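Translate structure to sequence.
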């Protein structure tokens, strides 16, 4: 009976571990993509401003 009760926990651990790793990677990917997007947006707006200034000047 004890073995039957312990079995689900043993089977759930790898699943929980995999889910945790997947969640961590997803979070890191999301943060990285967001940072890249923000940096790109900031850079493009900056370059556009500088180009506009040079064009006007």
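Result:
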């Amino acid at each position: 009976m004890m073995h039957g009760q312990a079995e689900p926990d043993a089977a759930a651990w790898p699943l929980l571990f995999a889910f945790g790793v997947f969640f961590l990677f997803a979070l890191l990917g999301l943060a990285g993509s967001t940072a890249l997007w923000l940096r790109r947006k900031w850079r493009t707006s900056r370059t556009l401003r500088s180009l506009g200034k040079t064009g006007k000047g």
